[in-house]
From TrEMBL:
It comes from the Eukaryota. Residues 1-100 form the C2 domain. It holds the Pfam family C2. The lineage of its organism: Eukaryota, Viridiplantae, Streptophyta, Embryophyta, Tracheophyta. This is Protein BONZAI 3-like. CDD domains: C2A_Copine. Gene3D superfamilies: C2 domain (2.60.40.150). The gene is LOC110790643.
């Protein structure tokens, strides 16, 4: 069994519960504990609850050399998700969201 090639997709949860994609990280090859370098900017709105949702996918090797925006997520293996509220993270100078688990059984360590 090979290691995953993870990529994270960041979403903002809208008031109606739908998710709006706001960015994707780069794909990290053969890594079970990825540290992504790319930054995804999010506009912070004071006194507004802004829920962020992170989906992590194992990217198929045929997509390693293509722009991440062109990767069809439904063709990738879903590894799990994490979420947080943006206002709770604004005091953290270097925000780091760590989740440990398999599939959707992740536990938050914010």
């Amino acid at each position: 069994m090979s290691k995953s090639d993870p990529m994270a997709v960041v979403y903002m949860k809208k008031r109606n519960g739908t998710l709006e994609e706001i960015g994707r990280t780069e794909v990290i090859l053969n890594d079970l504990n990825p540290v992504w370098i790319g930054k995804i900017s999010v506009a912070y709105h004071f006194e507004t609850v802004q829920s962020l949702v992170f989906h992590v996918f194992d990217v198929d090797t045929t997509h390693h050399n293509v722009p991440v925006k062109t990767i069809k997520l439904s063709d990738q293996d879903f590894l799990g998700e994490a979420s947080c509220v943006l206002s709770e993270q604004t005091s953290n100078i270097s925000f780091s969201l760590r989740k440990y688990a398999q599939r959707q059984d992740w536990h938050q360590l914010c």
